[in-house]
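Entry for the shared binder. Reason: the reviewer on the internal report wants the predicted structure included alongside the sequence.
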Amino acid sequence: MNPYTMAALFAAALVLIVIGFLVFTTYNEVIALRQRIDKAWANIDVALKQRHDELPNLVNAVRGVMAYERGVLEEVTRLRAAYSPTAPVPRQAATSEATSIAVRQLFAVVENYPALRSQQNVLDLQDEIERLEELIADRREFYNDSVFRYNTRIGQLPALLLAGLFGWLPRPFFRPDPADLAVPSTELRPA
């Protein structure tokens, strides 16, 4: 074989090795980013479930004293019932955000009742739900950061060239659709 043919074959083999290496490393990187998103979402789901489980305890603890605040309690209960861990991320984000707004409204109303503010079980439940709200916010931030990294990576070369081949699609951020947010009413309603 002549030296030019050998050099051409060597160059072609080298190009194939480099392309194979790029495909291999890009694929592994994107899969790791997808796993990070799944883990981040699972962490949000755990916190949402914990909040979901604590809300009835808080509603029951304040229900008797807050006879004139039935609308606020009903809103928290309605949003709790709307929680679905199998819903798409945007729907869960909207439900989560609306629940957070309703819980903040409930906490504001509790402040108007000295009898509730002095009950240790109400204070403990309020502290636990506030802790969970902060945890959800932190986990949302981590999830959105993971989605940002993944979406950015699959939009860059060489992953962009492989996205169609492997079915890599952008993931949605955890943010509610403003149209899905219902701000609870602050008006007092008689029982």
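Summary line for the report: Residues 153 and 159 are 7 Å apart (CA to CA).
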